[in-house]
Every structure is written in structure tokens, then in C-alpha cells.
Design brief:
The complex is a heterotrimer of chains A (358), B (293) and C (394). Chain A is 70% helix and 4% strand. Chain A is mainly alpha-helical and 358 residues long. Chain A has a single domain (2-350), classed as ABC transporter involved in vitamin B12 uptake, BtuC (Orthogonal Bundle). Chain A has a 3-stranded antiparallel sheet with strand order 2-1-3, covered by helices on one side. Chain B has one domain (2-279): Orthogonal Bundle (ABC transporter involved in vitamin B12 uptake, BtuC). Chain B has helices at residues 2-31, 38-55, 60-83, 91-113, 140-162, 164-174, 176-181, 186-211, 221-234, 239-260, 265-279, and strands spanning 118-119, 129-131, 136-138, 214-215. In chain B, the strands form 2 sheets. Chain B has a two-stranded antiparallel sheet. Chain B has a two-stranded antiparallel ribbon with strand order 2-3. In chain B, strand 2 and strand 3 (136-138) form a beta hairpin. Chain B starts with a helix and ends in a 14-residue tail after the last helix. Chain C is an alpha/beta fold and 394 residues long. Chain C has 2 domains: 35-154 and 298-379, 3-Layer(aba) Sandwich (Rossmann fold), CATH 3.40.50; 157-287, Rossmann fold. Chain C is 45% helix and 18% strand. In chain C, strand 12 (368-370) and strand 13 form a beta hairpin. The chains are: A mainly alpha (358), B mainly alpha (293), C alpha/beta (394). At the A-C interface, helix 2, helix 5, helix 10, helix 12 and helix 13 of A face helix 1, helix 3, helix 4 and helix 6 of C.
Chain lengths: 358, 293, 394
């Protein structure tokens, strides 16, 4: 029994190392290629978004793959992280604060705000099950987007002003500045997200997730996923563990949002970037990469973000082809018949029977 | 009087949500999947009617018939190609495939019909009813929409409770394996469900575009999501639930916009949804989830 | 099974990375030598897919016509133009990708981006790289972040205040209702300024109602509010797709017919396929472009557009056409040649931009001129729709 356990631990540990190594190697290779000038501007510009989507996908995988709850509202947490951090950065812009310190603080603030929202939303939401939980997370995500679109915050010598009507209702003095301007969002945010920061954050997110799922709490979370009643009967604090996983998942999405906010000069809450479409896109990464596999999430996020860019040559047909690829990949990866076929081929090739993953 | 006219507008919008939600809820009840492509089948249905009436100058009702047939076939094909191979796989995998199908239909329409908005001619052209000395006007399409919604719901209930195929559907939704053992052809039953759901989508689409006459490749997306919300609101899988959920959602949306804030109408709708689900976690008419130990 | 999956994904990933790198490498060398130096490379960015695709394709086609004309007539300073349009799905991040794709291709001037939000993310990049950029239709003043960014369209505040002025001066109404899109930068930009200016001019705003991207099918509530407030004029700072529903619901379903007053986004309403133009009767709008104008250049443009693309062009296509001609004019005046780098071209063209004056399709009688901040100076024309056609109101 003990032997088996050690073997299992080792295997887990090896899996973690492979994942970290994969990220680091990809980073080093890309850095060398960029330094040698053989990488297109397109690919260089994609590095930060790839990190962002990988981070959010890892966070969502914790929620979907390990907690077993379908969330369609993670774009909302990204949105909260993005706006709170960008708001902080804008406020601190002319105070002479060191840029790196300011960005790190923005990162902490964005992550914590998203975690707070995750916690507060998690309390009511996690009482629900299955598709009902999914729709309520979707509802929260849409509410966040809608409210931010009518939120106006300005600042002048008398302090902060706040309105949900329009910018003139703020009643700012002449020298006042509108920071959050409703649908126009936050403008002229310094671009501080870099590939290096993105990769470091991705590694931290992976580390936190791996540590969590391999800890006592992680096993409790998986027990809840596999059989809630049995878990409850052995005295596991269901609500507490669910909240823990959900909050961490939201915080990681928030960190992705901070990177997002500081990658483009402008930040608006549109259906395309913080609506349910984005939540669903991230879910696609998680499901395609394999639920419960953080490495898979990273790979799927990278792959699916790159495909539309690689297909640019197809002009108008690009998104059509993308959708066909998506359907084909899903069928290939998940269809029971395909899976059986692939396994049969593998047996033929390697002549040994692979153990079914549990 | 304002209140009454808001209520009527709410009922009209709500009935359209309800018809779309009926399709969602049927497919969910029987195939246990969220068919995110449902909204886009609606859009395809509208384009078929539009092409038939404008390019071939067919009678609107004949075009509607063609659209129903077209959508039915489309729905069955989608099920065969994209969803059936995934039967037995994780429910989320099917959900993602449905999203893929949704992207596919939108982009196909974009290429075939172009990105420009088309104006849809209402299938019913008549003067609005004038009541209360001109203070209250009710468009005829509103009356038609509400009536069709009630008729469709009643017909569906009858079909499911009285016909053999309907009973088979019920059986499959209760317990797929047991139904199979009792000699129900599960594949055919699911195909039939998709056929009915998609046929309804064509009707919903025509009513949607008759009341709100613009048509673009993304026409179906938002009503689709709203109808999905409505289906959950009423208790997903329940046919009267979809009806009630749809109507309520439409009325709340209009009332919220009229009396609270037009900027925050989406937030209001979703907030009400959240409150309802917190009080009744499986929707208004949903059955409580049974826990097996 | 999981392992197999990840192995396969890694392989696919590596392949795609290679494809990405390889493609980039060959393309950048291609731009460095080969045919570079003999042609001008003009890039354009806009939504070709997604809900805003209609604006992107209009710009794509309008610019194509201008470029074909120029190439037929001997090009810019004797050099032909190569044209590359990239899709941005109306998303800031995708727009940046599109910009980088064009940069890899060797773009020397940029026509774009079509929509405002993506433009706000691309403009700083163009400023940083010092690439000449002229946006046909991103109308927020905030996109003008540097000396090398120019606009062909009016700015939003400009339209808002012009509309209010026009209504007040011509005494069209004193009680005004507004319906706008609160999730859209363009719409809120015009509306904010309009409200400010209308108050200053003594107009009374009786209803100020919004809709969002997620609820733009039913407008009866907003119309009812205007009707109950006794609005004699309803101001619609929105695009024509929504306006077509508003007109139908107001006139057919509610029997409510105030004056409807639109801005340049309203242009195009008469060309919506199958639209009952009698509903638009009496609608007023300020627009720089009218597809059925008697102007010779406009007629020739409209004819070409219809032959090639089957639709009547809207103001986006016209702005794009003018944008390309502005590039041509500035490039000729500055005497740039295709073998210059994008930065050199940019410096030379920025210097002469305030001096050029092109007639254009949207310039009216005075033509188009630019200030050194990048804003265009042209007069909006007030037109009223009569018998399914624009009629000048002067």
C-alpha cells in the first residue's frame, strides 16, 4: 500500500515537473528566437495573450476539472481583475511611484478583488448544482459587464466622484479627470505586461494549483466532486472546500485580467472580451485540453489562440475553418468510438496494453 | 395605460423567448445536453424564409413551411454528425461541440448571405388593434405570437403525454438505459426530439424577425442565450416551465427597462434569475434533484 | 489516454509554432528584398467577421475601389499599391494581432482601424512604430494619440454639438427624446456632447433612454418613454440597423411619428435589403455622404461599388475611399517613394498633411482638410429623407 502511494506521488510529481519544464523551455526557446530576430511581430505580440489565456484556463480547470462545477462566468472575474487593477494604475500614474512597484501592487489588487468577488459570489452560487450553477455564474458575469458599462468614476481636487448615469453627472471641476468612463472604459493604460511576467504568473498559477490538488484540501475537493454525500458523511466541510477552490480559481482568472488590462492601451467591457463568449472560449480550452489536466489546458489555450491567427491567409473563410477544426478536435478527442480506435492503434504500435486512466 | 402597454410588449417578447426555450428544454430533457447552436438554427430559418419570399417570391406561409422542413432536416443532420458520435462521452464535450456548431452556422451564414443587415418583412401585415380610444395599440403580430406560443405548448404537452413517440421521449428522459431495455429506439427518439426542436426554431425565428425586423448572421445568438436563461428559470427539462420562464423573462426585461433603468435592464433580468434560483434551486417548475446514496 | 492526448497536442503545438515562426521569417525577408521598393504597401484593419463585419467589409471594398483606380492611373508617384486587409473581429486584442500581421507583411501606411475600441489599442502602436495611420471611421477624439494618426470621419463630440445646434437654430423642436446604445463608445460619445449642448441651447431633454448590445431587439419601452414625455423629436445617435427597428415599432406598432433625427450612423438605412423605405420618410440626419448625390465622383463610385459588390455603398465605404486618396495626396505632396522605410514615409507625410485638400466623396463643396492634431475639417450636411431619397435641407 505504502509502495503504491509513493509510486503515485512520484508520478504526480513527475507530471508537475514536465509541465513546468514545458513552460520554461517554451519561454527560453521563444526568447532566443525573438533575440535572434527570427520571430514574426505577430507571434511576438501573441506571447502575452497566450500567457493570459493559459493562466485563466488553468484557473478555470481547477473549478471545472477538480471541483466539478461548470462556471460560465470566469470572464466576469477577469473583468473585475482587469478594471480594479487598471483603476489603481491610473490613479497612481502621476504620483511618481516606481513603475514596477506600481504594476506589482496592481497585480495584487486585481487578484485580491477578483478573489473577493469569487468568494462573495461563491457563497450563494455554490449551493446550486450542475447547469443551474452554470447559468447563475453566467448571470453574474453578465451583470458585472453590464454594471461596468454604466459606471463612471472621476477624480478632482475634492476627491473621487461616482455616478451610474453619465460623465457629466460626476460634476467634476475643470482639472478633474474621468478615470472610468462608462462604455468607453479606461483609456491610456501603460502597457506593462511582458512575456516574462506572463510566464512567471503562469508558473505561479500552475504551482498553486498543483500544490492545492495534491494537498489534503485537494483530495477533499476531489472527494466532493466524485461523491458529495460520501464526502459529507466522512466529515468533509463541503461548503468550505468548495469556496476555497472557487475563490482561488476566481483569483487566478483575476490575475489573467490584470495582464489583459496592462497589455492593451485601452480597456472596455465588451461582449467579445468580457461577455459569456469569453467564458465559453476559456471553457473550450479546458475541455479540449482535458478536464483535470493543467498541462492540457495550457496547451489547448496556446493552440486554440494561435489557430485563428495562423489561418489569416484564408481571409473570410478563417472562422468557418476554425469552427470545423474545433468540432473535429472534439470528436477526435472525446468520441467513445474514436477513443477506442486510437487505443487499438496504440496497442498495435507499441504491443503493450496501456492501463486505462482512472 | 402605460403599464398595460409595457405588459403587452413584455408578453410579446416573452412569448418569443418561450418558443425558443421550448426547443432548448426538450433537447435538454431528452438528450441531456445544452444545445447552444439552437439560436443559430433560428437564424438559418429566418434566412430561408427571407430568401424564399424575396428571391423566389413565394407566399410567406409557404416559405415558413419550407423553413420548418429545412430546419428540421438541419437539426437532425447536426445531431447525427456532431452530437451522436459523442453519446456516452462527458456532457461538457457535447456542450463544446455545440458551441463549435454555433460558430459554424454563424460563419456559414456570414459567407453565404453577407454581413449586411436585411430587413425582414413581417409575415402578417395588418393594422394594429386600437383599444381604449387610441391610447392602447396592440400590433397583430403580438397577438399571433402569444397565441402561437400557447398553441405550440399545448400541442407539445398533448404529443408527449398522449402519443406513443411522446411516451418514448418521456421514457428516454427518465432513464435512457431502461428505455432501451424496454424496446425504445433511443437514437430515433433523440433524432425526433431534434427534429421537433429545430422545426420550432424555424417558427420562433419567423415570429422573432416579424416583430423585430432585422436579420443578420448574429440575430439568433442573443435571443438564444436569453431563451436558455428562460428555460433554466422555469426549470430546465420542463415544458410548462419553459413557457412560464420565457414569459416572465420577457415581462421582467421590459418592466425593468421601463421602471428601473434602461441602462441596466440586462443586469436586472439576470439579478431576478439569480434570486429565483437561490430560493428555488431547480427553477420555478423544475423537479428537485434526487440524491442517490 | 491522457498521455497520448498530451503527446499529440504537444506535437501539434510544436508544428504550429514552427509554422508561425517559419511563416513570419519568410515574410519578413520577403518584405526586406524582392518586390519591396517598387510598390507601396498599404494595410487596412477592420472587422470582417463577427457582429460588426458590415463596417469592415464596407471599408475593405471602398478602399479596394480607390486603390484599383489609383493603380490604373499610374499609382502613387509612379509606384503601384499593394493592399492587404486584415480581420480584427471588432476586438482590441485581435486588432493588435492584425496590426502585427501587417507589420510582418511590410506595411508602409495603415488605413484603420474601422471601429473605435480596437483603434484605441492600435493607435499607440502606430505612434510607437511611427507608421502613418489614417482611420476611416473610428470617430472618438481619443484615438488621436499621436501626430501620425489622422481621421477621415467627424469626431463624436463634433457630431453631437452640430446636431444640437442644428435642431436649435432651425427650431425643429424644443422637447427632445434620446435613444442611444450605452455599451457603444460611438453612441455614448455623441450623446454626451449632445445633451450638454442641447441644455446650453435651451432644448429640453424629456427622455434619455439606453439600450445595450444584449438587448437591442425591442425598443417599444424607450419609445414609450419618449412618447409619454411628449418628445417632438427623437434623437438617434446610433447605427441604422437598430434605427430600422425603432422606425418600424414607432410608426407601425405604436402610431408614434415625431421627427427622427440621426447622425452619420443612420446613413445606410435606405439601402437595407428589403427595408420599407416609407418608414424612413421624414427622417433627418447629418451625414457627410449621400449615395444618391448628383456629384459625378460619388456616382461613379457608387456604380463601381454596385458592379463589384452588389450593394449600395454606405459612408464607411466612402470614408475609406477618401482615406486612400488622402494617403495618395499626402504621399505625392511629400514626394515619398516605395523604397523608403515606413518611418521615413510617415515623417514626410505627417509634415504635409495639414497642407493637403482633397475633394473626396465626403467633403462636400469645401473638400477635406486636416488639422495638425489629425482631426478632419469637413462640414456635415443635413438631409431629410423624402420619397425614399436624401434631400438637402438648406
Amino acid at each position: 500500500m505504502a509502495k503504491l502511494n509513493i509510486k503515485k506521488m512520484n508520478k504526480n510529481f513527475r507530471g508537475q515537473l514536465i509541465t513546468y519544464a514545458m513552460v520554461i523551455i517554451a519561454f527560453v526557446v521563444m526568447q532566443i528566437l525573438i533575440a535572434s530576430g527570427s520571430v514574426s511581430y505577430l507571434l511576438q505580440g501573441l506571447m502575452v495573450p497566450l500567457c493570459i489565456y493559459s493562466i485563466v484556463a488553468v484557473g478555470l480547470n481547477l473549478c471545472v476539472g477538480y471541483l466539478g462545477e461548470l462556471s460560465l462566468g470566469h470572464a466576469g472575474f477577469m473583468c473585475v481583475g482587469a478594471f480594479s487593477s487598471a483603476f489603481f494604475t491610473k490613479c497612481m500614474l502621476n504620483t511618481g511611484m516606481n513603475e514596477t512597484v506600481r504594476f506589482l501592487l496592481a497585480l495584487v489588487i486585481g487578484t485580491l478583488t477578483a478573489a473577493l468577488f469569487g468568494y462573495l459570489i461563491g457563497i450563494p452560487v455554490l449551493r446550486l448544482r450542475g447547469d443551474y450553477l452554470a447559468i447563475v455564474t453566467l448571470a453574474f458575469g453578465e451583470i458585472i459587464k453590464n454594471v461596468i458599462n454604466v459606471l463612471y468614476i472621476g477624480r478632482d481636487s475634492r476627491g473621487f466622484h461616482f455616478s451610474m448615469k453619465d460623465a457629466t453627472a460626476l460634476g467634476l471641476e475643470e482639472d478633474g479627470e474621468v478615470i472610468v468612463n462608462g462604455a468607453k472604459g479606461i483609456m491610456r493604460i501603460p502597457s506593462q505586461s511582458t512575456f516574462l511576467i506572463g510566464v512567471i504568473l503562469l508558473l505561479i498559477a500552475l504551482f498553486i494549483c498543483f500544490q492545492l490538488v495534491n494537498s489534503r484540501s485537494g483530495r477533499a475537493i476531489m472527494a466532493i466532486r466524485d461523491n458529495r454525500i460520501a464526502a459529507e458523511s466522512v466529515g468533509i466541510n463541503i461548503t468550505g472546500y468548495k469556496l476555497l477552490a472557487f475563490t482561488i480559481s476566481a483569483a487566478i482568472a483575476g490575475a489573467g485580467g490584470v495582464l489583459y488590462a496592462h497589455n492593451l492601451a485601452t480597456l472596455t467591457a465588451q461582449p467579445a472580451n468580457f461577455g459569456y463568449n469569453m467564458s465559453i472560449m476559456i471553457l473550450v480550452f479546458v475541455v479540449l485540453g482535458g478536464m483535470g489536466s493543467f498541462r492540457g489546458s495550457v496547451i489547448a489555450a496556446v493552440l486554440l489562440t494561435m489557430i485563428p491567427e495562423i489561418l489569416r491567409g484564408l481571409a473570410d473563410y478563417r472562422m468557418l475553418i476554425y469552427s470545423i477544426i474545433l468540432i473535429a478536435m472534439m470528436l477526435f478527442n472525446w468520441s467513445p468510438k474514436f477513443v477506442a480506435f486510437r487505443q487499438a492503434q496504440m496497442e498495435k504500435l507499441f504491443g503493450k496494453k496501456k492501463k486505462e486512466a482512472v | 395605460m402605460s403599464f398595460l402597454s409595457y405588459l403587452i410588449n413584455g408578453l410579446s417578447l416573452g412569448s418569443i423567448y418561450a418558443i425558443i426555450a421550448l426547443g432548448y428544454t426538450m433537447v435538454y430533457g431528452i438528450a441531456k445536453m445544452l444545445n447552444f447552436a439552437h439560436g443559430d438554427v433560428i437564424m438559418i430559418g429566418c434566412y430561408v424564409v427571407f430568401t424564399m419570399t424575396n428571391s423566389f417570391h413565394l407566399d410567406p406561409l409557404a416559405s415558413l413551411g419550407i423553413a420548418i422542413v429545412f430546419c428540421t432536416v438541419l437539426g437532425v443532420c447536426i445531431e447525427k454528425i456532431a452530437y451522436r458520435p459523442l453519446r456516452g462521452a462527458n456532457a461538457l464535450a457535447v456542450l463544446i461541440t455545440a458551441i463549435g456548431v454555433s460558430y459554424f452556422l454563424q460563419n456559414l451564414a456570414l459567407i453565404v448571405f453577407g454581413s449586411d443587415t436585411k430587413s425582414f418583412t413581417s409575415i402578417i401585415e395588418a393594422e394594429p388593434l386600437v383599444l381604449a380610444g387610441g391610447k392602447l395599440k396592440i400590433p397583430v403580430i403580438t397577438i399571433v405570437t402569444v397565441l402561437s406560443c400557447v398553441v405550440i405548448m399545448a400541442a407539445l404537452m398533448l404529443f408527449i403525454n398522449k402519443s406513443k413517440a411522446g411516451q418514448a421521449m418521456l421514457a428516454v428522459s427518465e432513464d435512457r438505459d431502461a428505455a432501451q431495455l424496454m424496446g425504445v429506439n433511443v437514437n430515433n427518439t433523440i433524432s425526433l426530439t431534434f427534429a421537433i426542436g429545430s422545426g420550432l426554431a424555424a417558427i420562433a425565428g419567423v415570429l422573432l424577425c416579424s416583430a423585430y425586423p432585422t436579420l443578420s448572421p448574429y440575430t439568433g445568438a442573443m435571443p438564444g442565450i436569453k431563451a436558455f436563461t428562460a428555460a433554466v428559470f422555469g426549470g430546465i427539462g420542463s415544458i410548462p416551465g419553459a413557457f412560464i420562464g420565457g414569459i416572465l423573462l420577457g415581462v421582467i426585461e421590459i418592466m425593468g427597462r421601463a421602471y428601473i433603468s434602461s441602462q441596466l435592464s440586462d443586469a436586472i433580468v439576470f439579478a431576478v434569475l439569480i434570486i429565483v434560483l437561490l430560493v428555488k434551486p431547480t427553477g420555478i417548475l423544475g423537479r428537485p434533484i434526487q440524491e442517490k446514496v | 489516454m491522457k498521455k497520448l492526448l498530451s503527446v499529440m497536442m504537444v506535437m501539434a503545438f510544436a508544428l504550429s509554432m514552427l509554422a508561425g515562426c517559419g511563416g513570419g521569417a519568410t515574410e519578413s525577408t520577403g518584405a526586406g528584398s524582392a518586390d519591396a521598393g517598387s510598390v507601396f504597401r498599404i494595410g487596412a484593419i477592420g472587422p470582417a467577421t463577427g457582429a460588426a463585419a458590415i463596417y469592415g467589409s464596407a471599408v475593405k471594398n471602398g478602399a479596394q475601389i480607390a486603390i484599383d483606380e489609383i493603380n490604373e492611373n499610374g499609382g502613387i508617384n509612379g509606384a503601384q499599391i499593394e493592399y492587404n486587409f486584415q480581420d480584427d473581429v471588432h476586438d482590441a486584442e485581435k486588432s493588435k494581432n492584425a496590426y502585427n500581421t501587417l507589420k510582418d507583411w511590410g506595411m508602409q501606411m495603415l488605413l484603420g482601424t474601422v471601429t473605435t475600441t480596437p483603434c484605441l489599442s492600435v493607435a499607440p502602436l502606430a505612434v510607437q512604430d511611427n507608421t502613418f495611420m489614417i482611420t476611416p471611421s473610428a470617430s472618438s477624439p481619443d484615438v488621436l494619440v499621436g501626430p501620425n494618426v489622422f481621421q477621415v470621419c467627424f469626431t463624436d463630440p463634433n457630431q453631437g454639438s452640430k446636431s444640437a445646434e442644428y435642431i436649435a437654430e432651425n427650431k425643429l423642436a424644443t422637447k427632445i427624446g434620446i435613444i442611444y446604445n450605452s455599451a457603444d463608445v460611438y453612441s455614448t460619445g455623441i450623446k454626451d456632447k449632445f445633451v450638454e449642448e442641447a441644455k446650453a441651447k435651451g432644448l429640453e431633454i424629456v427622455s434619455d433612454e439606453a439600450f445595450t448590445e444584449d438587448s437591442k431587439t425591442d425598443f417599444t419601452t424607450q419609445l414609450k418613454a419618449a412618447q409619454d414625455g411628449g418628445a417632438e423629436l427623437v434623437f438617434l445617435p446610433i447605427y441604422y440597423q437598430e434605427a430600422s427597428i425603432i422606425l418600424k415599432q414607432a410608426k407601425k406598432d405604436m402610431g408614434y411619428s415625431p421627427i427622427f433625427f440621426g447622425v452619420d450612423g443612420m446613413d445606410g438605412i435606405l439601402t437595407v435589403e428589403n427595408f420599407d423605405t416609407s418608414l424612413a420618410e421624414g427622417v433627418m440626419l447629418l451625414t457627410p455622404f449621400a449615395a444618391d448625390s448628383d456629384d459625378e465622383a460619388v456616382q461613379s463610385f457608387v456604380q463601381k461599388y454596385q458592379e463589384q459588390y452588389g450593394d449600395v455603398p454606405n459612408q464607411f465605404a466612402a470614408d475609406a475611399y477618401d482615406g486612400i486618396y488622402a494617403i495618395k495626396e499626402a504621399a505625392e505632396k511629400a514626394g515619398v517613394t516605395p523604397d523608403m522605410s515606413a518611418q521615413e514615409i510617415c515623417d514626410a507625410m505627417v509634415a504635409v498633411m495639414p497642407e493637403i485638400n482633397i475633394k473626396g466623396l465626403t467633403g462636400g463643396d469645401e473638400g477635406l482638410q486636416w488639422s495638425d492634431t489629425g482631426e478632419v475639417n469637413k462640414q456635415p450636411k443635413a438631409v431629410v429623407i423624402k420619397d425614399g431619397k436624401y434631400e438637402s435641407m438648406e
